[in-house]
Design brief:
By secondary structure, the protein is mostly helical. Helix content is 48%, strand content 4%.
């Protein structure tokens, strides 16, 4: 069984937090597909084609799926809370802006 979620998490980490990615060691668990991760690394983390293309009426979805993912910003929306949260509204605006270029 392939540990797909962890593999995708590593890819996401590579995209968003490259410094942190360099500090992560590969898991030793037998369900982790280390050969695939090594192949990804040697091939500069290739990006595939969009598997499903929406019809012209929903063409904006094709643009969104092909758009460069914007950086995720953190913010403190609650005055008395010390935690940081993802700023999903800013992410949605930035993604829309990129898709409309």
């Amino acid at each position: 069984m392939l540990c797909y979620p962890y593999s995708r998490t590593l890819s996401l980490c590579k995209m968003c937090y490259e410094r942190l990615f360099d500090e992560i060691s590969m898991p030793k668990h037998n369900c982790f597909f280390a050969d695939f991760e090594q192949w990804q690394s040697k091939n500069n983390y290739p990006k595939g084609e969009i598997f499903y293309k929406y019809p012209p009426k929903l063409g904006l979805m094709n643009k969104i799926l092909a758009t460069k993912i914007p950086k995720v910003s953190l913010h403190k929306p609650y005055e008395n809370d010390k935690k940081l949260y993802k700023d999903s509204e800013k992410f949605a605006k930035d993604l829309s802006f990129e898709a409309m270029k």
